[in-house]
Amino acid sequence: MADQRTMEDRAVKNEEIKKTFTVTGMTCATCARTVEKALRKLDGVKFAAVNLATSTGFIVAEREISFEEIRKAVEEVGYGVSTESPEDVERKRYEESKRNLILAWLVTAPLALLMIYHMFVSEVPYFTWIEVFAGAFVTFYVGRGMIRGAWIALTHKHTNMDTLIFFGAVTSWVTAVLDSAGLPVMSFGAIGAMIVAFHITGRFIESYLRDRASKEIKALLKLQAKEARVITDEGEVMMPIEAVKEGFIVLVKPGERIPVDGVIVEGQSSIDESVVTGESIPVLKRENDEVIGGSLNVSSPIKIKVTKVGEDTFLSQMIKLIQEAQGSKVPIQALADRITMWFVPTIIALAIASALVWYFNYERFLPFVEKAREIFPWIIQTSDPLTFSIFVFVATIVIACPCALGLATPMALVTGTGLAAKKGLLIRNAEAIQTSKDIGVVLTDKTGTLTEGSPKVVNHNLSDELVRIVASVERNSNHPLAKAISELSQDVIEIENVEEIPGEGVRALYKGEEYFVGKPLDYSRYESLLEEGKTVVEVRRNGEVVGFLAIEDPIREDSPEAVRRLKGMGIEPVMITGDNEKTARAVARRLGIERFHAGVKPSEKLDLVRSYQAQEKKVAMVGDGMNDAAALKGADVGIAIGSGTDLAIDSADIIITKGGISKVVDAIEVSRKTFRIIKQNLFWAFFYNVIAIPMAMMGLLHPVIAELAMAFSSITVTLNSMRVRE
Questions:
Q1: Widest CA span of the chain, in angstroms?
Q2: Strands of 45-51's sheet, edge to edge?
Q3: CA distance 703 to 720
C-alpha cells in the first residue's frame, strides 16, 4: 500500500522518477551505448544514459520502473545490473584486474624473452609448442573476461573493444597451432599472449586512474555515517544509521562527523562544513541552527534533533545529483557516440580488406616493404604472403581504439563535476558544462544572491499591535524579507486566508480585516530611505496605508570581487530585482554593476532572460526565490543558491551549496576548463586513430607496438582528464 501511495503521490505531482544503478560487464563505449538502447526501450522511460567511466546507469521515467525490469532489459543485451555501489563494483574489478595482470605477466614475460632468444640468438627446441600452450593459458584463461565480453557482443549482434582484442589474440594463437601442425605460416603465438597481457595492463592502469579521478565523490561517500549515538530513555545507544528516525536526539562529540541532518537542541560548537559546502572556515552553530550530515563537529559536544534521514539528507542528495550529472551527456559527446557505433565493425572490415590486399599483391608491394623496414625495423621478414597478411590483420585489429573516444567525455565530466562539488557547486545537468563556457550575460537576483539574504529591519513606524500582526502574517511567507519582519515579535497570532502574491507581497485576514504586507503603492513617500539603499515594505489595512518597515540586507562579502571577475572574463553582470529603482541603483553602484532592472515581476524576469537571448547571447540566471523559478528554467544555464526554495533549486542546472555569486565565477571556470579538456581528449583520440590505423593497414606497425599504443591512448585520455583539477 505504501508503494501504491507513493506512485499515486508522484502521479498527482506529475514528477519524473529518476533511478541510478550500477551496470556490470561493460568494457567500452559500444557496451555503454548498447545498454542505453535497451533501457530506452522500457515502457515509460523518457531518458536513459550509461556512463562507462563510472559504470552507472541513469533513467528518467514517467512511471515507477522496478529493479527487476531494469535487470531483465540489461541482461537481455548481455550485461548485468548490481545492487552494489559503483565503488564496490569498481573495487572488485580492480582486484580482479590486478590478479589477471600478475598471472598474465608471469607467463608472458618469460615467453617474450624466449621469443627474443629464439629469433636472435639460438633456436629454442619445441618453441612453437610452448607458444601454443602458454598462449592458450594467457588468451583463454587469463583473458577469459575479454573473451566473455566479445562473445556477449557477438551473440547480441554488436561489437565492442573486446571483439577487436579477441580477433587479434586468437588469430595470433591460431598461427602457432598451424605452425606446430607443419603448415608454412610464421607463428605469432607469443605476440597473441603479449596482446592480451598489454590489454590487461592497460585495463589495470585505466581502472586505477578512474578510481583516482572520481575521488571527490568517493570522499563524499566516506562521509556517510554507519552509526549514530542516539539518546534514549536507557541512555546513549550506538545505533545503525538505517535505524535512526526523524525526531530522534543524537549526541555528537568533538572530532566526530555529524551523522544526520538536523537542528541543534542543546549546546554550541564550531562546525567544519568544508567537504559538503566548499567553505574552509568552521562556522559557529548555536541552538536552533541547522547542521548537515557529514560535516565535522570541531569544538564542543552538541545534541541534534534529527530532521532528515536516508536519501532525504543533504549529503545523499549531493551524491545523487553528482552521480546523475556524471551519468548524463554533453552535446559534443554525440559526435563521439556516432563514430564509435560504426567504429569496431568498420575496423574489422578494414583489417580483412587490408589482409586480402596484401595476400594477393604481396610480390608487387615487396619493394615498399623492404624500403619501409629501414625506417621501421619491427616489420617482419617473410616471403610468405599469408604470414604478412596475418601480420597486417592483427596489427590493424589491435591498433584501433574506440576506448579513447568512449572515455574522452565521461572521464572529463567525472573530474569536472567532482571539482565543482569540492568548490560547493552541484551540477545537476551535465549539459550546463558545455553551455556555461559561452555565457555572455549573468542575470542575478539581488536579495539572497548579491546580498546575504539575512536582512534586518532597521526602521519602522508601526504600533506594537501592528508589529504583532505583521510578524504573524510574514511567518507564512518564504520570501527572504519575511524572516526579518517575523523576528520583530515572538507573539503568535492566528491569521486566516494567507495568500502570497509572488513579486508583490502577502495578503491575509485578521479579525475580519484584510492586511497586506509588501510593495509600496507609491515609492515617492520613502525617497530618503530608498536613496540609502534600504528596501521599504508597506503595510496596508483594508487598502489603506498604515505604516512601513525599512529593511537593509548587507551585501555579500564576495559580491564586489565576483562582479569584477565576471567583467574580466568578458561577461556582463546584470542585476534584476523586485525592489524599486532607487534601492536597486544604490546597491548596483556599490557593486560596480552598470546595468540593472528594478521593480521586476516574476513573469518579467523570464521576459528579460528571453530578451537577452534574442540578442544571441547565452544567459545564466542566478536566483534563490520562488519568483526566480521560471527565469531559472528559461535561461541557458539556471544557477540556484542552495539556501533558496525547493522550487528554485528544482528549476536549476547548477546549485550553489553555500556562498553567493562568486561561485558563479567558479562554475564558469570549471565549465571552461572541463570543456577544454574534453576537446583535447577528443582531438587526441581522433588524431591517434587517423594516424595509426592507416599505418597498420600499410604493414608499418607491429601488433605488440599497436597494442601498446592502443593502451597508451586510453591512459593518456584518463590522465589528461585529471588535469581538470589543476
A1: 110
A2: 45-51, 56-61, 17-24, 80-82
A3: 25
If you count them, how many residues does the chain have?
Answer: 726
Q: Is 568 exposed, middle or buried (0-12, 13-18, 19+ CB in 10 A)?
A: exposed
CA distance 16 to 59: 10
Quote the Cα angle for 614-620-621, to 5°. Answer: 100
Residue 701 to residue 393: CA distance in whole angstroms: 11
The three cell numbers of residue 245 are 528516525
Query: CA-to-CA distance for 604 and 441, rounded, in angstroms?
Result: 17
In the prediction, which pLDDT does 402 show?
61
> Cβ neighbours of residue 77 under 8 Å, at least 6 residues apart?
34, 35, 37, 38, 156
pLDDT, one tens digit per residue, over 604-663 is: 888 898 889 888 888 999 887 566 777 887 888 888 876 544 544 566 788 887 777 888
Asked if residue 332 lies in contact with residue 413, where contact means CB atoms within 8 angstroms, the answer is: no
Q: Which three cell numbers stand for residue 27?
A: 568494457
Please tell me which residue in 261, 445, 624, 628 is annotated as part of the active site: 445
Q: Are 220 and 275 in contact (CB under 8 A)?
A: yes
Q: How many other CB atoms are found less than 10 A from the CB of residue 550? A: 19
Cα separation of 696 and 686, whole Å? 16
Query: Edge-to-edge strands of the sheet including 269-272?
Result: 283-285, 269-272, 296-297
What are the angstrom distances between the C-alpha of 675 and each of 387, 402, 433, 437, 694?
Answer: 45, 20, 7, 8, 29
pLDDT, tens only, 302-338: 999 988 877 677 777 666 666 555 555 556 666 666 6
Place of cell 598489454: 198
Q: Residue holding cell 543524537?
A: 250
Q: What is the pTM of this model?
A: 0.62
Q: Which amino acid is at 566?
A: L
Tell me if residue 3 is catalytic: no
What are the residues whose beta carbons fall under 8 Å from the beta carbon of 205, sequence distance 6 or more?
711, 715
Q: In sequence order, what DSSP letters do the residues of 659-704 get, joined into one string?
A: --THHHHHHHHHHHHHHHHHHHHHHHHHHHHHHHHHHHHTT-S-HH
